[in-house]
Fold this sequence. Notes:
The protein is α+β, with helices and mostly antiparallel strands. Helices cover 49% and strands 18% of the residues. It has helices at 12-23, 25-42, 67-88; strands spanning 50-56, 59-64, 96-101.
Amino acid sequence: MSNPNARGPRALSDVLGELFAVRGYARLHASGELELAWNAALGEGYAGRTRLGDVRRGVLTVTVDHPALLEELSAYRKAELLQALRATVRGSTISSLRFRIGPVES
Length: 106
């Protein structure tokens, strides 16, 4: 009978998996992938005018720099953007987008 707490050789994949989980590398990779997908879906003309926030309960919060842009994205492009994110981001759990106005850093 083997003791899972006993010291001894462990598979490298197990050790790396634990390290990535502890350090948050998977989350950072996922957020980078999400940002790339968002920028591709949004288009070049809007680069730097939005900032992605957290995904909570399937809702991605997006900060935009101007009320007119908020209206355009939320009223006219929301479904298109959501579909593009779902198609591009592997294992996406995003079910909706929430837009708000605020500062957007370059």
